[in-house]
Write a structure and sequence with these properties.
globular; 27% helix; alpha+beta; eight-stranded mixed sheet; 5 helices
Amino acid sequence: MTDHAHAHTSVPGPGQFTRTDARLGAFAVRDVDPLEDAELLHGWVTHPKSSFWLMQGATLTDVERAYMAIAASGHHDAYIGLHEGRPAFLIERYDPAHVELNGLYDARPGDIGMHFLVDPAPAGGPLHGFTLAVLTTVMEFLFADPAVTRVVVEPDVRNSAVQALNEAVGFEVVEKIAKPEKEALLSVCTRDRFHAATTEGGTR
C-alpha cells in the first residue's frame, strides 16, 4: 500500500454523504453507475457549456467506457451529486500521485485530486449561488475522509469562472503547469484554508 492509497479508505459510501445548504437545501453524493448513468452523463459532458471537460465529441459508448474504466481504477472514483434528490453535478476524485498529475508536481501523502461538473442545462434554469454551493459540497465530501489533508486541482488557465470559485473556497494557485491536453493552474486547498474561507462568509 502506497502513501497515497490510504485516500481510498473510510470514504462515505453511496448515499451516505449529505449536506444541507442554508439557502439551497439538501445535497447528497452517491457512486456513479457507469451503465445506468451513462445517458445522463453523456448529456452533461458533451454540452457546449462543458467544453473544459474535454469530452465534446464523446459518444454514449465512449462515456460508458470512460466511467467503467474509472470504476475499475484503484486511483480514480466518480460520483453523482444530488440536489433535492435530483442528479445535479458530477464529481471525479483521483489520487494525483498516479492520475492526472503524476510527475507534474510534488505529491504529498493526504493529497486528493478533484474535478467537478455542474449540470449545464438544469430544469427550471440555474439557481443563484448554486455552483458555489456545489463546490462547497464537493469539498466537504472530500474532507469527510480523515486521511485527506489537501485537495489539488488543475483547471485550464482559460477557465476564469472556476478559478474564481476555487479561490472562494480557499484554493491558492501554486504554479502554471503544462499538461498534454491543456495549460493548467495547479492549485491547492488545505482543510484549514477551506474551513477559514467558508466560515468567513465564503459560502454566503
